[in-house]
Design a protein that fits this description.
The protein is of the alpha/beta class and 317 residues long. The protein has twelve helices and twelve strands. The protein is elongated, with a radius of gyration of 25 Å.
Amino acid sequence: MADHRRKFLALAGAALALSLCSRVTAAQDIVVIATDTLTSTQRSIGGEKSVIKSQNPAAVFHEFLFQPGAGRDPVVKDSVLKLKPRLVLTVGSAATQYARDNFPDIPTVFCSVMYPVISGFVETFSHPGGNITGASLSIPADIQFRYFKQIIPTLKTLGVLYTDNTAPLIPPSKVVAKQMGLNLVAIKISSEKELSASLDSIAKVADGIWSVADANLFNPQSTKFILVNALRKGIPLMGFSRNVVESGALFALDFDYKAIGRQAGDLANQVMKGARTQELPVTTPDIIWFHYNEKTAQHMNITIPPELVTIAKEVYR
């Protein structure tokens, strides 16, 4: 009887040890790096966590707030390396660049990055090619142009201003425009002094102006100048964010940041299951919000289609 009892206790002890070991190995440390605490950032992180937790309840999140000007500060880097996380989640371009520079051997899933290819984070959307993939904010050009044509059915020629910063966007966008029966006239801006003449050139040929998110072009002063002149010339302008619509652009498409976070969470779950980041395509927004400026539309005698009025997220009056 004593031998049976000893065997039973030994087996029970082994089972308990195995159970504890399983819990330890099941636990997954995930680092989250952001550069601010904005509502949009928190929504993105919330979306990521909810999706990851649904499939990985043992996941443990370690959040770090990285200041873009402190790239050489070793505190965040040392803390992350000591954790030896399963993967790194980043929110925004600055955080993604930091992770790429400091943790090249740790799989990284970014979230809320506007131009991941231009930024050099990935080779292409379909084939990232490195240790980074993620959920971008890039709304495909064909979707943007489709909305523009829906609002302006007679649209034939689109104008766009760009700088060296967004130059890589122009050639593929021209191809997409041509496929949709549109002519995209692109004018490069090297300084704000060229804005007036460039807008005059666009006004002579374009039925509308498409804008791209370009920090080198759209500062508060130049944005106001472009909006005022487009309005005066009677050219409908598609903004690159709802803030530009609020300032006077005819309309814009925007994102649901929590949904972007959920997309990143889906990618993270695939990495947790063993998928390689270089084989996981970068995603584009699956939920898109439509915003328009009613006052601008009335000034230009443009009627927003009822089906778009119905789904509009925000209407600025």
